[in-house]
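Dear Dr. V.,

Thank you for agreeing to look over these. As mentioned in my earlier message, I'm a first-year student in the group and I'm still getting used to reading structure tokens, so any feedback on how I've presented them would be very welcome. I ran two proteins. I've put each sequence directly above its structure. The first is here:
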Amino acid sequence: MTMKTTSVSLCTASALLGFLCGCGQSKPEAAAADEKPATVVAAQPGPAAPVPSATPAVPAPVTPSPPSTPTTLAAPTVAGAPSAAPTQTTAPATEAASELVAAAKTQGDSVLSSVGNDLTTKVKELVASAAGNDALKSQLTGSLKSLAGGNETSGLGTLYQTAQLTGLTPAQINLAKEVGNLATAYVVQRNFASLDGAQGDVATIVNSLRQGEFAPAIPAVQKIAQNASLTPTQKQLLASIADKYAPGISKAAGTLTDGLQKIPGLGGK
């Protein structure tokens, strides 16, 4: 009886020990079992979480570029509208008068330069007033070029005829006469200012012509014509001035006791 009891006790102890041992082993296994599904779940990709759409980039403020200079378009031609003013060019007659001024500067004669400037001004006025008169402009240009080139007798001869061209207005005729007066004064100053003993008479002629008064110049012309130092070229030029100048000189000469026709070298014997 005792032995049976002891066996039962041993079996019971063994069973208890086995149970305890099994329980002792089952904890790690249970833990492993518990951890393994968690590990598997973590390893298995779950349903993809919705990826939030990218935040739209905020456009950087654009600095507006300065407006480009607009291309200037040619204005459309409108029938009857005035065309743009043409480029101003120097008229040939004015250029020829300017050559006389330049020549005066090279000689260092202040009176000659002053007369040349006045002549250029009047030429500009005459050309501007007779823009459509090609005959006048052509004759005026040729005359002044002759003067600039030293052919003074011929130049003055054609220049005196400018005021007689047809189609000129009274104002243009007066301007043409003024041009002739100043051109003659220029020629007298250039050719006779250095003549011995003639400076006073030359000044009288030049001043009278610049003022458009002819009578005061006649006695001075007479004195210069009698100067023994005159060259043949000077005599010819002085005779041309007396014979072909504006009618005012001839009329004034007729009132004098000693007219131009009695002056030696100017038509007299």
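The second protein is here, in the same arrangement:
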Amino acid sequence: MDSVISQLKENLQVLYRKAIDADASLAKLQAQGKGKFGSIFEESIGFQISSKQFKPYVEELSKDVDLLQGANEEEMQQSLTDVVKKMEIMFKTLAQFQQSLKD
């Protein structure tokens, strides 16, 4: 399971870098009066927080990964599924956002 945690942490590092870039782009758009929205993700996605920036979501994912290390087998399976789902959604959303900036 250590290799899974290690891979999740590597993905978090990638997400963090992408989130910083995306947040900078969002700040520019908002300064121009664009990007008026309540939060990036809907509650149904599974995040506990609500933010107009990506970085807080990465921070929540990081805490989720840290909790996996101390979880028992059953808790780990459920939590791992949730973490992977949220990571996939973040990667997809960040990619779509970056693509929309190019269009």
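From my reading of the second output: Residues 2-31 form the longest helix (30 residues). Residues 16 and 46 are 19 Å apart (CA to CA). Does that match how you would interpret it?

Kind regards,
E.
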